[in-house]
Amino acid sequence: KMDRLNRRTFLSSSTCSVSMREPDSQTEDVRQFVSFIVAEEEFGVDILTVQEIIRPVEITRVPHAPDFVEGVINLRGRILPIIDLRTRLGFPERDQDEDTRILVVELQDQTVGFVTDSVREVLRVKESTIEPAPDLATNIDTHFLRGVAKLDERLLILLDLDGIFSDEEAEALQGMEEDEADAAAAQGVAA
């Protein structure tokens, strides 16, 4: 894993901006979030879960995968499931363009890529500006919403990506990752 300094350096060298200034010890707690756009809505995830941000690469489709799984990629020898956040969050599909990015995120015990429409920036958010996730309705699944941050002129929907999959879905993703790694290894032996 990247340590905190390397993650900041990486993100500041990409299209994101980051403030390297540390908060005063007398100020309130500040959290950092990577903000990104999906279906014209701005979302954020804790920067500590983001390993890197990459441009889209060729995705290998996996038969019988859930509809929100685009497939898998080989990222420097690691097989990663790629999740379409638009589909997972219930938004209509859209073709990828030059702004599309994949957030490579560490979730519990596996690494997953999430396709976003674009990545905006790294934001420093005061804890006091974060409200709990609203109860929208009983039929809407909101267990992966961490809360909503009130920024100067906009709201940032904070996602808890560890909660975005059910236990069964997480197991299926883990199995898909292992199956593809086994298939890649078998091809290497056969070649």
Query: Which class do the helix and strand fractions yield?
Result: alpha+beta
Compute the separation of the termini in Å.
31 Å
Strand order of the largest sheet: 8-1-2-11-10-9
The share of residues in extended strands comes to 35-45%
Number of strands: 11
Total DSSP helices = 3
Topology pattern, helix = H, strand = E: HEEEEEHEEEEEEH
Binned, the helix content reads 10-25%
Radius of gyration: 17 Å
- Average pLDDT for all residues: 80
Uncertain stretches: 1-21
**What is the 3D shape?**
globular
What does this structure look like?
The chain has 191 residues and is an alpha+beta fold. Helices cover 20% and strands 37% of the residues. The strands form two sheets. It has a six-stranded mixed sheet with strand order 8-1-2-11-10-9, with no helix packed on it. The longest helix has 24 residues, at 167-190. The radius of gyration is 17 Å and the shape is globular.
What characteristics describe this protein?
single chain; 191 residues; alpha+beta; 6-stranded mixed sheet; 5-stranded mixed sheet; 3 helices; globular; disordered N terminus
Short description:
The chain is of the alpha+beta class and 191 residues long. The protein has helices spanning 4-13, 85-88, 167-190; strands spanning 30-38, 41-46, 50-54, 69-75, 78-84, 101-107, 110-116, 118-126, 130-131, 145-150, 155-159.
How is the topology of this model organized?
Blueprint: H1 4-13, E1 30-38, E2 41-46, E3 50-54, E4 69-75, E5 78-84, H2 85-88, E6 101-107, E7 110-116, E8 118-126, E9 130-131, E10 145-150, E11 155-159, H3 167-190
Parallel strand pairs: 2-11, 5-7
Antiparallel strand pairs: 1-2, 1-8, 3-6, 4-5, 6-7, 9-10, 10-11
